[in-house]
Amino acid sequence: MLIAAGGTALVLGVIYDYLIVWIPLVYVNFLATIGFGVGLGLAIDRAARFGQVRNASAAHFFGLLAGLAGLYVAWAWDGAARTSGEEESFPVLWNPVQLIAYMQFFYETGFWGIKGGNVSGIPLAVIWVIEGLVIVGTSTVLAGITASTPFCESCGKWASETEGLKRLLPPDDSDVLSRLSDGDLSVLDQFTACDVPPDQSIRLDLHACPECEDTRFLTVNLSRVTVDKDGDATEHTTAIIERMVLNAESMHQLQTTLDALEVTEVTVSAPEETAAEEDGDEETEQSAE
């Protein structure tokens, strides 16, 4: 991960700096900033996967280092990128003292502008802070994706995920959900299954080792589906059991219980129209008439 952080920061930092200097378009700069953070984070994530790092905090830490190193490289090459092709090009500023002096001069003078005026001072500093947060934050978050995934210690393999192994409707008894939250899977036989995501349900997700059947990881989520006025559904989940380890026997029992459940047909609620929208539709119809 350290090699990935240093190597990726060096390569992507230079590329990123030349992109934002040579293509001074807001949309391009915005996409380049996000892409820079994504590239750094995914590089650490791949390194963590290759090294079988199961500590998500360690992966996030190296993602943070990669983001900071990438920013340093980009700043170090900034003057060189801005004077590229000129008779006297600016040197690469690896020395932090020289780099701070360059940033201070940049802060006071401004090297680029909006609508004919150079951006400098506090407005420029705000842009720098946002840029840094996007790059470092994205790199830090994405670096821990694989390290947060369950791992089969017996086979040395990362588990693959099956999202929505089963969707269930709980009974009216509130004590059942409480027992399920405590890890009692025996209460699942009191649920009913459903084929489509209803407004509220229990969603079972499963991580499974691709090599053996001895290790499964079960996650039980409270699921809530909302539908906007355009008819687009969004699912929100809250884990009440997270990655419970199941051996082959307990997995077989779980599957037998789920297969025996009664299936209930459900429908997702249609998006609600506001009174204003309904009045507007009526006025439109009257105008048409």
Structure write-up:
With 289 residues, the chain is an alpha+beta fold. The protein has 8 helices and 10 strands. Strand 7 (200-208) and strand 8 (216-227) form a beta hairpin. The termini are far apart. Mean pLDDT is 85; it is low at 272-278.
Main traits of this protein?
49% helix, 6-stranded mixed beta sheet, 289 residues, elongated, two-stranded antiparallel sheet, 8 helices, alpha+beta
Low-confidence stretches: 272-278
Helix content: 40-55%
The number of helical elements comes to: 8
Structural class: alpha+beta
Termini separation? 68 Å
Mind telling me the C-alpha Rg?
A: 27 Å
Which series of helices and strands comes N to C? HHHHEEHEEEHEEEEHEH
* Oligomer class: single chain
Write the layout of secondary structure elements.
Elements: H1 2-22, H2 26-50, H3 56-82, H4 96-109, E1 113-114, E2 117-118, H5 121-142, E3 151-152, E4 157-158, E5 160-169, H6 174-181, E6 192-194, E7 200-208, E8 216-227, E9 233-246, H7 248-259, E10 263-264, H8 275-288
Parallel strand pairs: 6-10
Antiparallel strand pairs: 1-2, 3-4, 5-6, 5-7, 7-8, 8-9
Compose a concise summary of this entry:
The chain is built from 8 helices and 10 strands.
